Amino acid sequence: MVAITSPAFKENARTALADPGLQKALGTAKGAFLQRRAQAVANLPEFEQLRDIGRDIKNHTLANLDFYLEAYEAKVKAAGGQVHWCSTADDARAAVLEICRKANARTVTKGKSMISEELGINAHLEAHGIRPVETDLGEYILQLRQEHPSHIIAPAFHLNREDWEADFRRLHTDLPPDRVFAERRDILAEARTKLREKFLQADVGITGANFLIAETGSSVIVTNEGNGDLTQTLPRVHIALASIEKVVPTLEDATSLLRLLARSATGQDFSVYTTFSTGARRPADLDGPEEYHVVLIDNGRSNMLGTEFQEMLRCIRCAACMNHCPVYGAIGGHAYGWVYPGPMGSVLTPSLIGIEKTGMLPNASTFCGKCESVCPVKIPLPKMMRHWREREFERHLTPATQRSNLALWGWFARRPALYRAATRAANAALGLLGRGKGSFHSLPLAGGWTAGRDLPVPEGGTFMARYAKEQRRR
Amino acid sequence: MTKEAILGAIRRGLKRGPLPADQQAMLGGRLATHPRHLIPSRSRLPRPDQVALFIRNVEKEFGTVERVPNAEAVPAAIADYLAAQNLPSRFPMAPHPELTAIPWSERPLLEIEQRRAEATDQVSLQHGYAGIAETGTLMLPSAPERPTTLNLLAETEMVVLRASRIVGAYEEAWDRLRAESRDERSGGFMPRNIMFVTGPSRSADIEQTLELGAHGPRRLHIILIDDDPAALPMGEATAPPPVAVPGGPAAPGD
After folding, report:
1. A66, A147, A165, A184: which to substitute to probe chain B, counting the most B Cβ within 10 Å?
2. Which of A65, A159, A227 is facing B214, going by the closest CB pair?
3. How many CB atoms lie within 10 A of CB A95?
4. What CATH number is given for B41-202+212-228 in this structure?
């Protein structure tokens, strides 16, 4: 499993803000996804209606999840595939290893899969003498750098072109050291050549799944590079990793969700390759894997059903929420400290690894609401972050000073007359103190706030005083 | 057993036991009838416009399309394309009856091998099952006569598609497959693999900047055979008049 650094979120964020390379990468990337998504949405007048449809399909499936999973399994078996049910990450790692061992696998190619990161499949295979090779371009360089993805659809979001060139020179030592990378496409071409060998060598191919389809027993992957397809077509064995909430009833349901996915993710109308895999190679086929396995993973999802976090299971992993998040845009994905960054991670991570270690995440939000407004399946992310804050408070996980300050505020807030008198006094005092200054660069007891910005000097009365005045004027 | 443990945990979360029989029958009915949801109106067009939309969308996604009047014109179109791109004239072709029936002998310089693709192939020729106008997407179901590797390994993928196989929305393509395909192993209609391909392969992993030609083909070239008189560009249609053509324009509620 990926090491958890979420408890150090504040330090992580501080480091991220001071990292010039990361800030440059975030600056380059910023806006690209937003513009493309906005354009794709503008070109599809029915997009808003499709969001409601997407939400309803997922809600219907979750309410009947047991039924659809059993129907799905029956269809996989009928098509010559196998389903391995796994409650925990340990179960799933063991299942993957056993399939690889039975196949006498030495090299395993992998398509991009976030659940694989969640399970820590690579480390587990390596520990048992099997070599996993990431084939998504972004995942490939991260594997070379021994890093983890910082974004769920653009794993190398935090890197600059210089990083790619430097790493390729450092690690592809069989190539002339003075070769020239004149264009980004030269980097891409080198990766293509290197990975082509791996695709052909691999004994097993591991992919994730964007959807599972109960009607047909199919797993669906969505890629632009074609690496996922080479991974699941060329080796003798294909393993699809999927968590239980990926199932949808029919091809029509998946189709409606696919209309939302690429537009929300990269701003494409449709990804280059959307592929449905159903069972193993048929007798007369000229290519395709001889074995087809689905490792079906719970790992904490079923615990979310029936709670205020059930709606999080609608997530189709498009990354629109993090692309539009001002916090993610400032600190990148690694600061969140585990597999899933951004708003969806701030809700999902506490559900999967516990609020004890991850309390900072649902607090790392301005509640601007942009994430919910772009979510293709309308997950109320800010509301659920609030629920996590409540749980954190109830379980006495918030720091003592924060608790006592909140209690003090609560005491005043329940006494409106006193509250107004106190804010009036504070307002007047600040106004007096800062007369002629415009703003405060620092303030006693508010150092944390003024460290990063100035506080404007209050002008005129308090909000309530001005509100009352306006009402009287009417 | 893990399966029972997971199903049990799901039911505990949903605060109920296994679904009652009538509820299961209802859900089974939903699977069997697979109702359509909202289909965007953009592909509900007269046939000529639907084909034009398909071509426009392929080109928007960096694919290329050449329209030819009939199957007899395919060998010349391919020979000219390969020559113009400075590509080898030897390539693997899907062993599909519609492709093998093409009079290749008229272009004796083309060396065509009916087989799957190998890593050394620079060019491949695939058979297109259907085209989806909505997004300019090819539907390529695997079959002995349509190997998946032909979609993936060569730097240049050529696809022969008949205009009568262009539909408006994905749902129409699913219905064709349901009606036309039979999979002996599963007893259903799904082949082992179906690739929906929209343009050539690409990556934006380096600084979120799009570059074509990642692991799959760098070029996608579609040779479109105008076998559907109703789908010809306006003014070119000849008798019979553009009515009652199978797979004709999608009507509202289709």
Report:
1. A66
2. A227
3. 21
4. 3.40.50.10420
